[in-house]
## 1
Amino acid sequence: MLLLDTLELNPTPRRPVWIMRQAGRYLASYRKLREKYSFDDFANQVDLAVQVSLLPLKQYELDAAIVFSDILLPLRCMGLKLSFEETGPVIVAPKTLEDINKLKFEFDPETQTPVIMGSLKELRKQIPKEKALLGFAGAPFTMLVYLLEGELSKDLGVVRTWLRKDPKTCHRLLDFLANAMGNYLDAQARAGADAVQLFDTWASILGPADYEEFALPYARRVISQVTVPSVYYINGMGSLFEQAQAVGAQALSVDWRTPLGEARNRISQVVALQGNLDPYHLLLPRAQLREAVFEMCNSYGKDPGHIVNLGHGIVPNIPEESVSYFIESVHEWSQVLA
Ligand code: CP3
C-alpha cells in the first residue's frame, strides 16, 4: 500500500496523494447530494457517509479514502449543542465553570459514534486494497478551542483567557479529551482504518511553553493509544517543529508556510512528511500549478517518506479539473523515482 509504505519510509514507485477535505463542497457531486441531504444526514447514516467518502475516489486517482465525519461530532456526546450551518459549525459554548461541570465526561466510541465505525467497516470492504482508509480526530487542544470558543473569536481570545484564568479546568478538559480521542482513534483502527490523522489545527496560536503544557502531552497520549500509524497536523507548524515531533506520530502534516526541505532539516527524528501545497495554488493556471507541484516535490527530494497533500483542507471555489492537474503533476514528477 503506497501510503502505508511511505509512512514506514519504505521506497515506493511513486508518491501517494490524497487531499484534506477531499469529500467536500468543491465537488459538484457533493453539492448535488447536499441539496437533498443535510451535513447531519451524511454524518448520521452509514450508507450516505460511505457514498460521500467514495465521491472523490470515483473522480480522481487518490491513494486514500478518508471517512466522512467531522472532528466536532464527539462534542455532542459531551452534551454540547452543535449544528452545521451554511456559515460553518455553530457550537453553544459553556460560559461558566458550572456549565462545564454539567458536561458529560464519558465517551464510548463504539456506542456513541456507531456511524463512523460502521462506515469504516463498510469502506474497507468497498475500496481497493492498495488504497488506504483513513480515520481521524481532533487533537485535545484543538477540541478545547472549539469547546470553549463555540464560534471562534478574534485571536481565539476566549480560549486563551480560559488558559490563563482557569488552567486547572482546562487541564481537566484536556485530560478527558486525550483519553476520549485516543479511544476514538483506536476504535476507528479496529473498525478498519489503516492509518489515522490527528488534527491540531489551532495549536500554533500557542507559544512554545504553552504548547508544551496544553497541547503536546495530550496529543502524545492520544497517539500512544493508537495501534495504527498516525499523522499529526498543525496549521502553522513552523513555530513548533522541534516540539511537534515529540508527539510521536509517524508523519507530520505540514502547512504551506514552510518548504518541505526546510521542515526536513529542522526535524531531527526521521519521520514522514505530508503536504504541503497552498490550497489556493489550485487556482493557478495548469502550467504554473504543475511548477508549484514540482517545486514542492523537489523541496522534499527523492527520499521515501513524502505523502503529497495540500497544506490545509481544499476550499469550495477550486475548479474540479485543477484537482486532476494536481494529481497528474504528482504522477509526472514521480517518474524521476522509477
Ligand atoms: O473529506 C474529508 O477530509 C473528511 C471529512 C472531514 C470534514 N471535516 C468534513 C466537513 C474532516 C477530516 C474534517 C476535519 C475538520 N473539521 C477540521 C480539521 C481540519 C481543518 O480544517 O483544520 C476542523 C477544524 C473541522 C471543523 C469544521 N467543520 C469547520 C471549520 C467547518 C466549516 C468549514 C468548511 O470547510 O465548510 C466544518 C464543516 C465541514 N466538515 C464540511 C465538510 C465536508 C462542509 C459542510 C457542508 O457541507 O456544508
Note: The pocket of coproporphyrinogen III is lined by residues 20-25, 34, 39, 66, 68-72, 84, 88-89, 136, 199, 201, 235, 313 (CB under 6 Å).
## 2
Amino acid sequence: MTVETHHLIEDLARTGAAKRDALAALLGCDEAAAEALFAAADGVRAQAVGDEVHLRALIEFSNHCRRDCLYCGLRRHHEELPRYRMEPDEIVACAIDAADLGYGTVVLQSGEDAWYAAPMLADAVRGIKAARDIAVTLSIGERPEEDYRLLRDAGADRFLLRIETSSPTLHQQLHPDSDWQERLGCVGALWRLGFQVGSGVQIGLPGQSLRMLADDLLFLRSLKLDMIGVGPFISHPATPLAGTRSGTVGLTLRFLACLRLLCPQALIPATTALAALDPDGWQRGLEAGADVLMPNVTPMQYRRRYEIYPGKVWSDLEPVEFRRLVEDIVARSGRRVAQGPGHSRLRQAASVGPRE
Ligand code: SAH
C-alpha cells in the first residue's frame, strides 16, 4: 500500500467525504490497502451504529416480470423459466411465520407484476400489520405514485428500489424498456410519501468503470438514503449478458467499505448476491462495514424459481435452518442480532420531509 492510499483511507474515515478520483483509486486498491479500508469501515460502523446486525426476512412472492432488464433472470423474455405467484393470503401467512421465527421486518419482493393490483397488495400489508407488530418493506419495482400512496397508507414502512447505476447511459443500455429519470422519480416519490427508502447499484456491470462506480458512491450519498443495498452483478446464462464477466467479491467489498465511510449512519446489507459468489460473503461483508442481512423465508416450493442470477446459496435451507445459519454468521463475526424492527436511524434523527 502506498503512503498516498493510506492517507486517502484516513481522510475518508475522518471526514466522511472524498473526491471521485480518490474513490476510484480506493475501489481499485491492492489487497493490503483493501484490508486497511475494511478495517477503517469496520471501525466507523462500530462507532456510528454499533454491533447489532439487523435481520430482514425476504419473501420472494412472484417471479413474473413485465420488464426485460438485460441482466435479470426474471426478465420477460426468459421464456423457459417456470413462473409462480403467491396468493395474498399465502404472503400474509409466510410473513406471520417469519415474525414467529423472530424477524422484526419482512421484505416482500417480486418482479414487476401487475397481476397484484395495488389494493390487493395493500390488503396483504394490512393483513401482516394486523397480525404481527413487524415492519414491512416492499421491493416491487416501479409503480404509479397512487399505488405507492395506497401501500404507504396500508402501513408499509419501507421500500427498496435500486437505481442500478448512476449513469443514465449505462442504464439505457441495460434497460431497453425503462428510463433512468423515471426510476429516480419513483425514489423521490417514495421519499415524499414517508417511506424509509433504500436504493443501490450493481457492482461490476458490463461497461461499468471504476470511475463510474466512484460516481455511484457519490450519487448514493447525495440521495441521503435510509438503506443502501449493493451487490455484484452475476452473469445469468439465459439472458443477453450470458458469458459476460460477473462482478467480484473484492470490488463489492471495497465499494461496501467506501459506502460505510461516506454514509456512516445508513443501513447497509451484505446482500444475497455477495453470498452467491462466496459462501463467506456475508461474514466478509459484515467485517467491511455492513450491518444488515436478509435471510430467505420464501416457501421451499418457489425458491429455485426466483432465479434473478445463478448460484444462489442456501436455497434448500428451510426458514428455521436459515435463521440458525444467520445467527451463526452474526456470532462468528463477534456481533449480535438486533431485536425489533430496526428502523432507519436517519428518520429517527431528522424530521421527515422532502429532501432538496
Ligand atoms: N422488480 C424489483 C425487484 C428486483 S430484484 C425492482 O425492480 O426493484 C432486486 C435486485 O436484484 C435488482 O434491483 C437488481 O439490482 C438485482 N439483480 C437482478 N439481476 C441481477 C443479476 N444478474 N446479478 C446481480 N443482481 C441482480
Note: The domain at 3-347 is CATH 3.20.20.70 (TIM Barrel).
## 3
Amino acid sequence: MLASWAARLAAEIGGRHGDALRYALLTPGKRVRAALVLAAYRSVGGPSPSAAGVAAAVETVHAYSLVHDDLPCMDDDDLRRGRPTTPRQFDVPTATRVGFLLVPVAARVLAEAAAELGLPPGTLGRMAEVLFQAGGIEGMVGGQWLDLEAEGRTLGLEQLMEVHRGKTGALIRASCTLGGIAGLAPPDQVAALTAFGEDVGRAFQIADDVLDCTGTSEELGKTAGRDAALAKSTYVRLLGVDGARREADALARSAVEHLDRAGLPSGALGALAGYIASRKS
Ligand code: GRG
C-alpha cells in the first residue's frame, strides 16, 4: 500500500522531489504502527480482510516526522533505517518540502482507505481527528517541541513521560485507536485499545532509550548513542538499563490487561506489545 502510494506520488510530483518523497516513504522501517492498526482492527472483528490503507496513513505521518526529525534544526542525523537520512541523501530544502508534502498525503491516504472500507458517514471524520490530533500540538509536534526545549536540561520522570507521551506515544496510541474505529468497534473497546496503546507507546520509548545506549548503529540502522551526544534526558538515565527494561516489560503486561478487561482477544496485540518492549532494533 505504501509502495503503491509512493509510486503514484513520485509520478504526480516528478523530479527530485518525487524521488525524495518515494525515498522517505519506502525506507525499510519496522512498520510497528501499521502492525498495531491491523492487529487492533482484527481484534475487534473488523469486517474487511484489510485495513492496510488506514495503516499506511499512520505510517505516512510517521515518515514525515522522521524526515523532519533528521533536519539540522532538529536532531540533525546522518543515518536512518540503515540509510542516509532524507536531508543527507538529498538536501535540506528538499527534505523540508517533502516532509511537509507528506502531511496532506496522509489525509488523502486515510480518505481513500475509508472509502475502500465503505465506512459509515462520520467515521472518516473521527479517524482524521484522532490521527491529526495525535500528530499535532497535543501529540507528536507538542512532544517534539518540549523535547527540543529540554536539550541540555535534566528532566524528572513526570516531565520525561509528558515529552514522550506526545512525541512517540501519541502516534502509537492513535494507531490502536484507529484500528478500533475502522473496525466499527463499540466505544468501550475503542477505549480499551487506546489504553493499550498508551502503555505500549511508553514501553516503545523506554525500549528505544535502552537500545540507544546498548545497541550499535548497524543493529539500529540509526546513529547509536545519540541521546548521550545530545545530552538528552532518558528513561535509562533515570531508571538504569535494568530498571528501564523491567518498566517496559511491566507496561507490556499492563497493556494486555486493558484488552482482557474489555474481553478483546490479546493474541496478536499482546505479541506486538511484547516485541515492542523487548525489541533488539
Ligand atoms: C515542529 C516541533 C516540531 C516538530 C515536527 C519532527 C517532528 C514533528 C516530530 C518528531 C517525532 C519523532 C521523530 C519521534 C521519535 C519517535 C521514534 C522513536 C521514532 C522511531 O520509530 P521506529 O523505531 O522507526 O518505529 P522505524 O524506522 O522502524 O519506522
Note: The chain is about 75% helix and 0% strand.
